[in-house]
Amino acid sequence: MTRTRPARPHRAGALALAAGLALPLLAACSEDEPKLVVYNAQHEQLLEELAPAFTEETGIEVELRNGSDLELSNQLVQEGDASPADVFLTENSPAMSQVEAAGLFDELPDEILDRIPEMYRPRTGLWTGFVARSTVLVYNTEQVDPAELPASILELADPEWAGRISFSPTGADFQAIVAAVLELEGEEVTREWLEGIEANGTAYDGNNIVLESVDSGESEVGIVYHYYWERDREEGGEVSDQSEQYYFRDQDPGAFVSVSGAGVLASSDMKDEAQQFVEFLVDEQGQQILADSYALEYPLNPDVELERDVVPFSELEPPRVNVSDLDAEAVVELMTEVGFL
Fold it and tell me: What fold is seen in the domain 32-132+258-311?
């Protein structure tokens, strides 16, 4: 069963009028100076903080075109060399691998790549990770004894968890976790795991709704990334006050750390500016903006730490999965066969 929230009403007429009035001004601003076009699948709010800081630092104007990971990666593959995009950013890395496989990225210089540990960028040097988040299990503290939580995320497919778990399978977050399971455990184990959790659990449309379901007791445990729970706790705990987080250990697939990627399109007419943008993301200034933002994601430059009330990045025990090996297309095919998509 999939749960959704109602869409918010909007004032289309007022927005259209405002957009029409703004057109002459926008045209005047962009007539002389072209803007760097960023296809952005990371959180809009985060880039709305980062992009102005980059512009202030460099004088380079940025146009954000927002969408989801696979929506924008599929669009880039369809557009090919004709794409207007200069930079591609994702929330999770499998979409980056899809665009890389299509041969659409330009190689990044070593001075950019060297700022990020090798584990969090592809062996090809065609893009880089810049921020990350950890897989966790949130559990209702009134319904679940921590001692009964599984040592591995794979155990959630066991019969004892029937009717007790929740997840959001249609989003890029969950699909990245499945990609890690597929790379680490192979297709047969991954298929059995997906079939098991589908039988055991409830699918929701969004990780925040998974969090709400656990906090309310509708579900006992939920698979999410750490920042959903951490953000809500920072903001008062409205949907996290009856739950806690459980971190898988010992390089289990459930300890997977998902990486947001950044790459420069080979077809870009502004490659120098695009490289500057990616360099800003991974250099200390941009990474500090990430660390200080609402996002509560882990910066990947070792010189910058997320100094908040979260589990330190150094204490996570993720499996060693190179981002080059996460196969988005294979995940979508497998999840479709199982009935998730």
Answer: D-Maltodextrin-Binding Protein; domain 2 (3.40.190)
